[in-house]
Model the fold of this input.
Amino acid sequence: NSVTRGVTKEIPAVSWNDIGGLKDLKKKLQQAVEWPIKHAASFDRLGISSVRGVLLHGPPGCSKTTLAKAAAHAAQASFFSLSGAELYSKYVGEGEALLRRTFQMARLASPSIIFFDEADVIAPKRTGPGGNSSGNATVGERLLSTLLTEMDGLELATGIIVLAATNRPNVIDAALLRPGRFDMVLYVPPPDVEGRYEILRIHTRQMPLGKDVDLWKIAERTELFTGADLEGLCREAGIAALREGLMTQLLACDIHFQAALRSLRPSLTQAVV
Ligand code: ATP
Done:
């Protein structure tokens, strides 16, 4: 129907255990997002107000989206996702309408988490006190002011938390970082060796592994790999095993992981880490 069109709503299936590493970050999100929704009555009784918005920033492929989904899953909250780039590319006025509709749906389906990917696209720093020189608000400015209005309106609603993600936190408009808006800013770093080991374990959970596969060694050799890269590595190794094993037995062995390692390049550069 017209209210739900263009909006994805679901309670995601992914849980905290599906995310490798990031122990402290997961704990912070549990406290800031999961608890206030799950224990809303206790928060009320104690007079604790919850955060309205959390800004996640860090390199691509390092689980910002997955963290938001896991928070929704843990809180059993409806999950709505919006992308800055998608809103920006809509016809005049359609992006704002979709934004407002999403907040409206989130209220109806509360408790809800609204995930806002590529937030920097619609919330870049404004050009100055008067906006741009023509005096007309640009698409980005109109979207931003709609978002700010909706977030301010959340004060009256309970059980709705907005999580935004960006790879470029330095271009986010300061108005979004005021109290009552995105008052929590968390860096989602690339995985360290232990994180990489956990990610490899997660993405080989369903895969029969040969005895010679040493995931810790692979974790040590995959510096600069993101979580998404490691997922791709496991997939490649699985496919290599499949290619070879169709006639015999299906087992992902060390040679398959080595072949996958040779064929893939990490997404990160030293500068990010
Ligand atoms: P982008 O900025 O490109 O949107 P992102 O930071 O939101 O990226 P995700 O979309 O959450 O990253 O992750 C991409 C994929 O990589 C996911 O499918 C997820 O399975 C995998 N992945 C990333 N980090 C981890 C992790 N820590 N543990 C397990 N899987 C991970």
The chain has a mean pLDDT of 88. The two ends are 45 Å apart (CA to CA). The pocket of adenosine-5'-triphosphate is lined by residues 19-22, 60-66, 117, 165, 167, 191, 199, 202, 227-228, 231 (CB under 6 Å). DSSP finds eleven helices and six strands in the chain.
